[in-house]
């Protein structure tokens, strides 16, 4: 006679193998396999090409296994389920403090203006009218109307200038507070110094006839969070870090410190809440500072056609699966260049594609709305503006932050090129000579201008040439 214990054991086995069988059957449904992960914001592993060499050396079987697991039909639901199980442990409202500060101390800049940050200069008082854009010259009148998107709600409380003082928690390198999250920045002296040296090397390789501009884009925490919160988590002063890097650059390089400008406008919607990127409005203020440095007049926002794409849930949401973020997604606002909206890019497969500078992503998934900018992260892209015929050309060396910046450059040059340093296979001097480029603009977020790993990829753009002795 079967004992109770054996009966329970037999039932468990039946259930286990039944579930295993169902999952195996689902795994054979190739037509249900996804190609893109909305949660992880990436393309999934493609089906490997069977070759005789691959079959013999075992690499085909290995790649096939990777494809099978990476594109399993229920992968998104399983990932969401894992986050749900984690959430059952409860939400932590207390602030988690990093005990060991992972950041280097930022060296003082000789003769610098308050190298440790502090208050912004008197000329950078917060705008009383959030809808007004800054002018290129101090005496220029601001536009009468500048559309500024605002989220449905923002974390509370906030200080008068828009700085956020909401208690939250640290999750990895992000600070989560309510329905918003913020990228934290930890200074690396070796990485920052190496970046500045690379910029100098690019300047030496390209010569004085080519103007080099370096824009280090502040991460959201330094602009949006109260300094006391930054001190608690040991995050570095991004204004001081930019000032340090710029101080190491040669006099012929235009090192821009846009920190004060971003801080001045932190009561506006300049960073997403559910994603690590800045918004197009944030990119616009950097563009205005570049125009100021170049001595040209920027366009005002009301001159552009505006497109809004609602329901964006970005990388922060993917990391946290926060219910608060899901209930209050971001809106992606884009500004269409006036001269043309047509561009061409060379994709990762080496093929050339016609595209739009601002694409319609209305029907795209909630995690894909930021892809509306500049063809996203392609190795090499360019646009010809038929409204300008002076032969002028610039190239923007960018990461994904630069995607929202590029559209503002189109109306100032006949030819605008942009390359993603992580994927481009050519060299910068060759591109500049071949295309007759006069302005080289590095537009990279603070992580990539302080990370030795990222800078090592940048260095591939300008090969070191041993001097003749």
Short note summarizing the structure:
This protein has about 475 residues and is an alpha/beta fold. About 30% of the residues lie in helices and about 15% in strands. It has 2 domains: about 5-85, no CATH class; about 120-460, no CATH class.
Task: Explain what this protein looks like in three dimensions.
The structure is a single chain. The protein has two domains: 4-87, no CATH class; 122-459, no CATH class. It is 31% helix and 16% strand. It has 15 helices and 15 strands. The strands form four sheets. It has an eight-stranded mixed beta sheet, sandwiched between helices. The chain has a three-stranded antiparallel beta sheet with strand order 3-4-5. Strands 1-2 form a two-stranded antiparallel ribbon. The model is unreliable at 82-100 and 114-157 (pLDDT under 50).
List the helices and strands and how they pair.
Layout: H1 4-27, E1 36-37, E2 42-43, H2 52-57, H3 59-70, H4 75-87, E3 169-171, E4 174-177, E5 180-183, H5 189-206, E6 211-217, H6 220-224, H7 227-233, H8 238-247, E7 254-256, H9 259-264, H10 280-294, E8 305-312, H11 315-320, H12 323-327, E9 330-336, E10 342-346, E11 352-356, E12 380-384, E13 393-398, H13 406-409, E14 415-420, H14 428-435, E15 439-445, H15 452-459
Parallel strand pairs: 6-7, 6-15, 13-14, 13-15
Antiparallel strand pairs: 1-2, 3-4, 4-5, 8-9, 10-11, 10-12, 12-14
Helix pairs in contact: 5-8, 5-15
């Amino acid at each position: 006679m079967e004992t109770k214990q054996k009966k329970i054991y037999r039932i468990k086995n039946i259930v286990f193998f039944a579930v295993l069988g169902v999952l195996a059957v689902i795994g054979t449904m190739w037509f249900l396999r996804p190609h893109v992960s909305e949660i992880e914001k990436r393309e999934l592993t493609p089906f490997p090409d069977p070759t005789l060499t691959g079959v013999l050396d075992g690499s085909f079987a290995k790649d096939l296994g990777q494809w099978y697991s990476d594109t399993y039909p229920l992968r998104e639901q399983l990932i969401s389920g894992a986050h749900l199980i984690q959430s059952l442990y409860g939400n932590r409202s207390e602030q988690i403090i990093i005990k060991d500060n992972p950041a280097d101390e930022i060296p003082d800049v000789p003769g610098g203006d308050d190298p440790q940050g502090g208050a912004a200069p008197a000329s950078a008082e917060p705008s009383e009218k959030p809808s007004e854009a800054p002018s290129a010259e101090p005496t220029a009148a601001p536009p009468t109307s500048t559309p500024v998107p605002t989220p449905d709600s923002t974390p509370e409380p906030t200080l008068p200038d828009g700085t956020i003082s909401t208690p939250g928690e640290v999750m990895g390198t992000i600070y989560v507070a309510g329905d918003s999250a913020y990228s934290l920045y930890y200074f690396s002296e070796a990485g920052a110094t190496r970046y500045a040296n690379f910029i100098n090397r690019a300047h030496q390789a390209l010569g004085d006839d080519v103007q080099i501009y370096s824009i280090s884009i502040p991460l959201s925490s330094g602009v949006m969070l109260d300094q006391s919160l930054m001190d608690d988590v040991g995050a570095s002063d991004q204004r001081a870090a930019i000032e340090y890097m710029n101080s190491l650059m040669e006099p012929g390089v235009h090192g821009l410190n846009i920190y004060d400008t971003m801080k001045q406008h932190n009561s506006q919607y300049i960073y997403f809440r559910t994603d690590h990127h800045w918004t197009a409005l944030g990119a616009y203020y950097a563009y205005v500072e570049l125009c100021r440095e170049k001595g040209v007049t920027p366009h005002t926002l009301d001159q552009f056609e505006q497109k809004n794409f609602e329901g964006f849930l970005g990388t922060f949401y993917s990391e946290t699966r926060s219910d608060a973020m899901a209930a209050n997604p971001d809106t992606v606002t884009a500004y269409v260049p006036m001269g043309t909206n047509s561009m061409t890019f060379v994709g990762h497969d080496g093929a050339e594609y016609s595209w739009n500078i601002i694409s319609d992503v209305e029907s795209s998934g909630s995690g894909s709305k930021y892809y509306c900018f500049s063809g996203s992260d392609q190795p090499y892209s360019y646009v010809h503006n038929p409204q300008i015929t002076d032969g002028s050309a610039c190239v923007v060396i960018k990461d994904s932050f630069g995607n929202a910046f590029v559209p503002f450059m189109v109306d100032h040059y006949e030819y605008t090129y942009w390359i993603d340093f992580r994927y481009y296979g050519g060299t910068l001097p060759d591109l500049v000579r071949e295309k007759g480029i006069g302005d080289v603009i590095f537009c990279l977020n603070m992580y990539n201008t302080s990370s030795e790993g990222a800078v090592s990829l940048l260095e591939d753009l300008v090969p070191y040439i041993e001097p003749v002795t």
